[in-house]
User: Fold this.
Amino acid sequence: MTHSIFHLKQLLNEPFTQTRDLKYYGKWSFFYGIFAFCIAYFVRPYHALTWQLSEPNLLKLSTIISVAIGITHQVSVTVVVKVSYFVTRNGGRWKVYHQLLNYAFQYLSSSTSLYLSTYYGLGFTSQLPPHGRFMYFLSISSYILLGIVIYTFFEYYSRVIFTKLSASSLSESLQVAHTVSQEQQHDPMAEITFRSEDEKTLLKLHPQQLMLVQAEGNYIMLYWNEPNHRVEKTLIRLPIGVAEKLLTDYSFFFRCHRSYIINLNEIRKLSGSHSIKGNARGLAIKLASLDIEIPVARNRIDEFKVKVKNMLE
Assistant:
């Protein structure tokens, strides 16, 4: 039980990547409004309230609900974005439990908006609930429940679509970055020396040769390109943190995950990742000549985007 609680706390405190683009949210607010109209007008989950409504009045009510839901969603996400700036202003991070509170706030806002827009919408159409207050609350509750399910579905898939679009955009940027990088002149005399803690292993590589550093406990696996384009690898007893310090002078190396340091010039494919454990709704990297899917940690996605942008400058 204690072990489960510990893991739950650990999960809730994990960083969560959040977009702050209000134009992006505006598109989804418009879409939510349209969807709310379709549900209100065609599905009519609050059937007890609508069986006496004429078609013109039902159209009015559905329009009122649609506008209310769309505006409420946009206002609520704007509030959340402002709060996220406040939370992260001094180097803090937006975490999973912040996002859960965000969902709860938006559910409450949408439910309240739905309740009020339906009640006053019926008053606007001069047709009050025919079966009394209890039936009104019962039918509205079913509408709110359906709304929560629908909202959760579209929120999840909006995140999936956002991740795929980000991966596509970054892939295009990296193609340009690779071209720029190849045109740059690198010091042919530069070398990186990896020396194991037990002094038994010594490996010297040119920076451009190194493709990937992968942590394996107290060891690291180094992958590099030989002049004949053959990929070699070796295991060295050395913490990945020490390896990261050795690579700080070279801007094209990036620690995308606690277990991986990649050469950005070796990236050949980026995609949305939903299969890697612990990397839901994240990005996945494929390197040239390596059949390994490398995750980008959620809390490093923004930094990764900045790195790619800097490669183009």
In short: Residues 132-183 form the longest helix (52 residues). Confidence is low (pLDDT under 50) at residues 179-185, 274-281.
